[in-house]
Amino acid sequence: MAKEAIGGSLHALAMKFIKFGVVGASGMVIHGGLLFLLKEVAGMNPFIANPIGFIAAASSNYFLNRIWTFHSKEKQVGVEYVKFILVSIIGLGINNGSLWLMSRLLPSWAEDWRFYVLWVVAVGITTLWNFFGNLLFTFRKKQQ
Length: 144
What we know:
Number of strands: 0
Distance between the termini: 12 Å
């Protein structure tokens, strides 16, 4: 049963993770683009701009992961979307918390282009949570 919960074989799991990563890369473009526009162009506080970009990317990622990564046939799309967003909101907490902690440990990095290096590290940490959270909760196959 545990094997089915995580998608069958190790190869199948690895393929899902790769697809999840590709979708996540598209989300990084959306997230990073909005973060840059809101922080650099609009002058918004980065700890407000970051979650805005994150939620926009999460919404895009839901639809791409539903179709391509997890091949979901769930008829209650709204319920599935809410589950995905819940996993993403927890991920947002992990992301923002990681970003905040690293910016406190390396304060000079939080003020210029190096902020984006910290952001990429935070995204990497969050990716692991999001993948397994969605695999085991959002897109978990129902038992027949």
